[in-house]
Write a structure and sequence with these properties.
Helices cover 27% and strands 27% of the residues. By secondary structure, the protein is α+β, with helices and mostly antiparallel strands. It folds into two domains: 295 residues, no CATH class; 36 residues, no CATH class. The strands form seven sheets. It has an eight-stranded mixed beta sheet. Strand 13 and strand 14 form a beta hairpin. The longest helix has 20 residues. The relative contact order is 0.16.
């Protein structure tokens, strides 16, 4: 017998809290919509798993591991059987030092506890269930945000270099852009869980799209991830159930993907307008495919995890000394005003980083489907390569830890924002290659 349970846990920060996701720190002035940890528990009679999606820009391993330890101590569920990821909404409370935002330790502890409570409540709700999976395609809402420049077009990066051949977010109809530097992934994979009598329990989806944005100034919001959860509940007729239905949208492999059509743009929307459009389009497609799903009364569950060691791209002593001089010129000191100053600060901070880090790779088996949890902002090419080798699989980024952007070696050679060395982009050039090789071992374990 398969059992499933789901629950949500509110992780909204107080007004006045830090909002990260930009080069300058933001402050919460209004709560537009509450933030949540959305949790799904599965049990095949031998193995229990928990899938968690948290409304946050990025979450470090410390917060995730704290939450997992609390669940393990209270329930016995092994830490490695939990997959926790951040959505990457840029309008959430700060949980990891990024840009010029610093987390409040009290908020970090609060969120870890609330995640743990959500998983425990999902486990409490375990009941006989059936499960199905599938994917739809929503190509109209994903665009590669990295563009190749015409020959002779030059822009200067924050370090003074002029050799980048790719520009990220170059501006709509910029005459210097030629073509996207990479592909997109239009697929939205999802796992749907129902009670044995057909009552919707939860739906876990993943789409390779960065946040949408255009929220109100100082607004806390779950972005399209939260809007999708609301809309799919409505489309499935799952409102006001007991226990409540839980819709979940995870971030796929979207490190170089956003929602802006740089060859023509989109009609200008009011705040939250584009968020609702994206959420509705994706939810409509998922609901359409869900109507024809084949549900299974039982499927085998499994999980495999391993640690891999990755090198970091660290500055030289001369680069650190130059960066300190640049920082000293800031008119907002100790805050940094210009992009040159912001990246100089990143250079100085990276000087204290270790030469290597340990990154967790996790593969989850749900029947025929495999969910690959990447601890980074993974480029879409990496996710597509995973699917090419293993068609019944999909990737989830920002899972179980945070190690910044993860471009492919080929994209590193092109340059551009995602390759600029910072705490949010310091993994070695071959990191994606090493992660894919690590996942091959995990796929072999779960055959």
């Amino acid at each position: 017998m398969l059992r499933a349970g789901a629950a949500t846990s509110n992780v909204t920060p107080p007004l006045g809290s830090s909002i990260n996701g930009g080069f300058q720190d933001g402050k919460a002035a209004h709560i537009h919509d509450e933030l949540h940890a959305r949790c799904l528990a599965l049990d095949d009679g031998t193995t229990k798993l928990a899938l968690v999606v948290v409304d946050s820009c990025v979450i470090g391993r410390g917060v995730f591991d704290d939450a997992k330890r609390q669940v393990q101590e209270a329930t016995g569920l092994p830490m490695e059987n939990m997959t926790m990821s951040a959505t990457h909404s840029h309008s959430c409370g700060t949980l990891q030092a990024v840009g010029q935002s610093e987390p409040d330790p009290a908020y970090q502890k609060f969120v870890a506890r609330r995640i743990a409570d959500g998983v425990r409540r999902a486990l409490n709700n375990l009941a006989p269930a059936r499960i199905g999976w599938g994917y739809g395609e929503v190509p109209g809402q994903v665009f590669n945000r990295r563009w190749k420049l015409r020959p002779g077009a030059i822009f200067q990066n924050p370090f003074g270099g002029t050799n980048d051949t790719v520009r990220t977010n170059p501006g709509v109809n910029n005459p210097d852009i030629v073509e996207p530097a990479g592909p997109t992934d239009p697929q939205v994979w999802f796992i749907s869980v129902q009670s044995t009598n057909g009552r919707p329990i939860a739906l876990y989806a993943a789409y390779s799209l960065h946040y949408v944005g255009n929220v109100g100034a100082g607004h806390i919001s779950a972005d399209y991830y939260g809007a999708f959860a609301d809309r799919i509940q409505e489309l499935l007729g799952a409102d006001r159930l007991d226990p409540p239905f839980v819709g979940m949208m995870a971030n796929g492999t979207s490190g170089d993907i956003n929602n802006i059509n740089f060859r023509g743009g989109q009609p200008k929307q009011p705040p939250y307008g584009q968020i609702r459009l994206v959420a509705n389009d994706v939810a409509q497609e998922v609901a359409r495919v869900a109507k024809s799903l084949a549900y299974h009364d039982w499927v085998p569950l499994g999980v495999a995890q391993k640690e891999i060691t990755l090198g970091l791209r660290l500055p030289t002593a001369a680069e650190v000394e130059k960066a300190r001089e640049v920082m000293g010129r800031s008119k907002m000191f100790p805050r940094m005003a210009t992009m040159e100053e912001v990246y100089a600060r990143e250079t100085v901070l990276l000087n204290d980083f270790p030469a290597q880090v340990s990154a967790p790779l996790q593969l989850v088996k749900i029947g025929e489907v495999r969910l690959a949890a990447f601890p980074a902002e993974t480029f879409v090419e990496v996710g597509l390569e995973l699917k090419r080798k293993h068609p019944a699989s999909f990737g989830v980024s920002l899972a179980n830890a945070y190690h910044g952007y993860m471009p492919t070696p080929a994209q590193h050679r092109l340059g551009g924002y995602e390759t600029f060395r910072a705490r949010s982009s310091c993994l070695e050039v071959d990191a994606s290659t090493k992660m894919l090789a690590g996942f091959e071992e995990l796929f072999d374990r779960l055959k």
